[in-house]
Amino acid sequence: xxxxxxxxxxxxxxxxxxxxxxxxxxxxxxxxxxxxxxxxxxxxxxxxxxxxxxxxxxxxxxxxxxxxxxxxxxxxxxxxxxxxxxxxxxxxxxxxxxxxxxxxxxxxxxxxxxxxxxxxxxxxxxxxxxxxxxxxxxxxxxxxxxxxxxxxxxxxxxxxxxxxxxxxxxxxxxxxxxxxxxxxxxxxxxxxxxxxxxxxxxxxxxxxxxxxxxxxxxxxxxxxxxxxxxxxxxxxxxxxxxxxxxxxxxxxxxxxxxxxxxxxxxxxxxxxxxxxxxxxxxxxxxxxxxxxxxxxxxxxxxxxxxxxxxxxxxxxxxxxxxxxxxxxxxxxx
Length: 333
Description:
By secondary structure, the chain is an alpha/beta fold. It has helices spanning about 20-30, 45-50, 90-105, 120-125, 135-140, 170-175, 175-195, 220-235, 245-250, 265-275, 310-330; strands spanning about 10-15, 40-45, 55-60, 70-75, 115, 150, 155-160, 200-205, 235-240, 260, 280-285, 290-295.
């Protein structure tokens, strides 16, 4: 068990070690200022970090053996002949093992936050492991009935009612209970981690022009509108359904704290157009903080030194910001 101290413990899972995950982790942790905020334990493959060699490694066997100024590494694999940019079954399994290790440490109470590096989903699945994504993985491991996948930037915060679901199945998934639960998760999260007493949430319609009064679909009239009305009756600032083609314009102006869409690309297309390099993936509804860079493994540039670490920097900073806010709230109470 880790001895209690002033600094919070933050876990960073490398992701697929053949991708850019190790590079961006090293770039972030080379900034000495960031170590003043927390104790960072990196979980991943030992070989790839020795190949990179730009930070001295402290192999962590005992979690109390933390060394300032080092890359404190909890090794889950030591893959021989690993090559940046060349994913293999072994690198995919290593990424998955990193996540499982993080789950164990969180359940032990070691850490309250985890930052996950990009994984290669196809590789994990090809290795015979059932895996949809980080969001679904953590939801299952912690036996959470519902979570909300969201994406954060300083100017736009979005979430989606459905995640990795074929567009043909989205309409049937838009149910009152599902929307009610997701919006409640968003409201709770914004109050707890951002200190918003009455956050404003824009709920998007599913159809063009939010259905145009039933002309282009009835999901808005039958499902989305009643749920928005229900929340407003309870004093919450939940507005909708709003046509998706105008909601983001007003959200960027600051009219809304959060935009809640109906499906993945409805919110991710505009978000990534604006914040592709700096966006942060946040899972709401978990019993701990989970953030992640909003990009993939980028095998094509792994090992070249070209990887942009901005999204990882933002992921770390957001996790630390939320940890500080929760601690401050507890201290005040």
